[in-house]
Write a structure and sequence with these properties.
By secondary structure, this protein is α+β, with helices and mostly antiparallel strands. 32% of the residues lie in helices and 24% in strands. The strands form two sheets. The protein has a seven-stranded mixed beta sheet. The chain has a four-stranded mixed beta sheet with strand order 1-4-2-3. The chain starts with 5 loop residues before the first helix and ends in a 22-residue tail after the last strand.
């Protein structure tokens, strides 16, 4: 098969995704983005590396969509509406046009569904593993966005969706934990694996986050670890009610079968839920949220040194020793790996 030049590769697989007028059909060295008057441009970037953030033999379309969605999650936490993205793709030896076509198709599907066009990027060869990096741009009305630093004592602590599915899904996906085969149904395992492979960014909540959240961030490095970051940034303490932390039916089944997996759920990554501090007088039931959106109050903020007090039934619970995972040290083992 004839190897495509970089120009041919871009023209065939990525130029069709560059629908933003500022992208100029990817025929220039830079895009030109113009926020509307009274809007701010929010910028975030995330890189994904084979063997660290996904398994090398994961479906290429799912790899592309996950790369896009982890950035969309960051935008949602800032109350930003997706505007466009840059893609840098480092391809190792042995890549095929079929692989790239499937990757581009996955990217195109989410770019369309989230109204999030490609505006530029770069493609290179690498002797190392596959790597993709996405820089995402979002728009926020006005000049104020919810930061990690805005939480105040007395505010309620809330999360969207459920916690722990991504980390438990990684275990199920790699087959490292026999308990998943022994105690979980095929449907439950597939639900957890699906949450790991294809995160659900809370883009539809961006307006509510912008309007009501005093502080917000997405949960990507584990619930306990990311909450610790928010508390440190805002210099407040938190009591977290363990019984109120929302788990999916599949995650509850996994924890019931192996209670130690609760620590995995609380500290593992890949949730991509939103964590927010809301004013105490705000009733979440009055918010205009998308149909089916789940939001749970899981604690309260207070004065004091940044720390988490984990309680169950009013009684203190020892915090996990490992608060979260760090992307530079985390490894996704091959499917046939066994402990």
């Amino acid at each position: 098969m004839t190897r495509l030049s970089e120009d041919d590769l871009i023209a065939r697989y990525f130029a069709p995704l560059a629908l933003h007028p500022g992208a100029h059909g990817l025929k220039d060295d830079a895009a030109v983005l113009s926020p509307l008057p009274g809007e701010s441009l929010v910028v975030t970037t995330d890189a994904l590396v084979a063997g660290v953030h996904f398994l090398p033999d994961d479906e290429p379309g799912l790899i592309a969509r996950k790369g896009l969605r982890v950035n969309l999650s960051d935008l949602a936490a800032k109350g930003a509406v997706p505007h466009g993205f840059l893609l840098s793709l480092a391809l190792p030896e042995g890549w095929t046009q079929d692989w790239l076509a499937a990757f581009a198709a996955g990217l195109a599907a989410d770019a369309t569904d989230f109204a999030f066009p490609l505006v530029g990027g770069d493609t290179v060869r690498t002797p190392g593993p596959l790597m993709l990096s996405i820089t995402a741009f979002g728009l926020v009305s006005g000049t104020t966005v919810p930061r990690r630093t805005g939480a105040q004592p007395g505010q309620g602590l809330y999360v969207t969706g459920t916690i722990g599915d991504g980390a438990l899904g990684l275990l199920a996906h790699t087959g490292r934990d026999e308990d998943f085969r022994s105690f979980l149904s095929l449907e439950q395992r597939e639900a957890l694996i699906g949450r790991y492979l294809l995160p659900q960014p809370r883009v539809a909540l961006a307006t509510a986050v912008k309007r009501h959240a005093a502080a917000a961030m997405d949960i990507s490095d584990g619930f306990v670890g990311d909450l610790s970051k928010l508390l440190a940034a805002s210099q407040v303490s938190a009591e977290v009610w363990l019984d109120a932390v929302p788990l999916s039916p599949a995650a509850r089944a996994a924890v019931a079968a192996t209670p130690q997996r609760l620590e995995t759920a609380l500290t593992g990554g890949d949730d991509y839920a939103l964590l927010a501090a809301l004013p105490p007088e705000l009733d979440p039931s009055t918010l205009s949220l998308p149909l089916g959106t789940r939001i749970a109050r899981i604690g309260v903020l207070s004065d004091g040194e940044p720390a988490i007090r984990l309680t169950s039934g009013g009684q203190p619970i020892k915090l996990p020793e490992r608060l979260g995972h760090e992307h530079y040290s985390r490894s996704a083992p091959p499917v046939d790996d066994r402990d």
